[in-house]
Amino acid sequence: MPAAKSPEFRRRALDLVAGGEPVAQVARNLGISESGLRRWMAADDVDTGKAEGVTSAEKRELIELRRKNRVLEMEIEILKRASAYFAREHILPK
């Protein structure tokens, strides 16, 4: 998988396309795929409000919340197992 490009690089590419240069030519000159540049264009349209969709900031927030949710679910499962283990010890006859 190719390395992620910096936000400045992406902004420069988007500015070149907005300036009237063809997408294929900009992609070729910068050494990136045309489909990747088009994805950046679509994401920029959503971020600037030109198109409907989930913004980049919202995507980052969703990823972070899902990660936290996974951790909390694992913690709950560990606590359930621990409480069941300790409950079983106190119920068994001596």
Automatic annotation (TrEMBL):
Transmembrane among keywords? no
Judging by the UniProt lineage, the source's domain of life is: Bacteria
TM region positions = none
What keyword terms does UniProt attach to this protein?
Answer: Plasmid
Q: Which GO terms describe its biological process?
A: DNA transposition
Quote the Pfam families the UniProt record gives.
Answer: HTH_Tnp_1
- MF annotations from Gene Ontology: DNA binding; transposase activity
Q: Which protein, by its recorded name, is this?
A: Transposase
